[in-house]
From TrEMBL:
Protein's recorded name: Phosphoglycerate mutase (2,3-diphosphoglycerate-dependent)
SUPFAM superfamilies associated with the record: Phosphoglycerate mutase-like
Keyword Transmembrane (UniProt): yes
High-level lineage: Eukaryota, Sar, Rhizaria, Endomyxa, Phytomyxea
Keyword Hydrolase: no
């Protein structure tokens, strides 16, 4: 015998159950759609600086060879090949997506790295936004010496090189590149992404990607030639830098101090001492003539 009101109690319970089920189903569908919209992130992102270039060895080359045309040295080629072997050991037979600066030294580095991979496992895109910081066309040694002095005083992130870029300018184009990179995650479906770029550009990528303050960028030591830094996806779907980076006082490191000072080809002994600072008038004339 049905108790008074029993039908309505059961009906109400069924309705509540249906509402709860519908809410759960709606949450599941919404979650699935959100996950489908979310880019499929690779397991690791590798940042790699190009191999040793002729410009790393002799800065005088920048006075008559365009920065983008500077090639690798023999040692740089060996470094790139060794780095390719190391990368292959880390990624195994997984698919790899390369993004490469259009500068000659970066292209050559990729070509040597790629010899260690099966062609069917590799895809590559050349990306101008991964190029080196622009130091202003052909680089007069005296002007660059003065720029280095002012850059140290002003700070490498905000100092803008005459006819060139500031670190902040490079940061902006790296930020723009990140949007393309995220869109590409779904398209490529590669488990590993490798960026072959330049020391300062790699550090600014880390600053943007990991939300560093600019002071940390300025303290972070520049990458060695063919050094590899690894960002690995964690359980929370965020990336963490799993390779250590060395921090030093800002004045203790500068990319231009890593290499030989500008040298007089006719008097190599002059490389032992830096150029004398320019007077304001001569500096102005030099800057103007360099811009023309």
């Amino acid at each position: 015998m049905v108790q008074p009101g029993g039908f309505w109690v059961r009906a109400g319970a069924l309705m509540l159950g249906s509402v709860a089920f519908g809410a759960s189903l709606g949450w599941f569908v919404a979650r699935s759609m959100r996950d489908r919209r979310r880019p499929r992130k690779p397991w690791r992102i590798y940042l790699m600086r190009h191999g040793e270039s002729t410009g790393n060895v002799d800065r005088n080359l920048f006075t008559f060879v365009p920065d983008h045309a500077i090639p690798l040295t023999g040692e740089g080629a060996r470094q790139a090949s060794a780095a390719g072997k190391t990368l292959r050991a880390m990624v195994g037979d997984d698919d790899v997506r390369f993004w490469v600066s259009p500068y000659q030294r970066a292209r050559q580095t990729f070509d040597l790295v790629a010899t260690h991979f099966d062609a069917g496992k590799v895809s590559v895109r050349e990306e101008p936004r991964l190029r080196e910081q622009d130091w202003g066309n052909f680089q007069d040694c005296e002007i660059i010496a003065e720029c280095r002095r002012l850059r140290r005083k002003f700070g490498p992130f905000f100092y803008r090189i005459p006819a060139g870029e500031s670190g902040a300018d490079v940061f902006d184009r790296v930020s723009s590149f990140l949007e393309s990179l995220y869109r590409d995650f779904d398209a490529s479906r590669a488990q590993h992404v490798v960026l072959i770029s330049h020391g300062l550009t790699c550090r600014l990528f880390l600053m943007r990607f990991l939300h560093w303050p600019f002071e940390k960028f300025e303290r972070t030591k520049n990458l060695d030639n063919c050094e590899i830094l690894i960002l690995e996806r964690q359980a929370d779907n965020r990336y963490a830098l799993i390779t250590p980076v060395e921090e030093t006082p800002m004045a203790a490191h500068d990319e231009w101090d890593e290499y030989a000072r500008c040298k007089d080809h006719h008097n190599p002994s002059s490389a032992s001492s830096p150029p004398e600072p320019l007077s304001p008038a001569s500096r102005h004339r030099k800057l103007i003539s360099n811009l023309v």
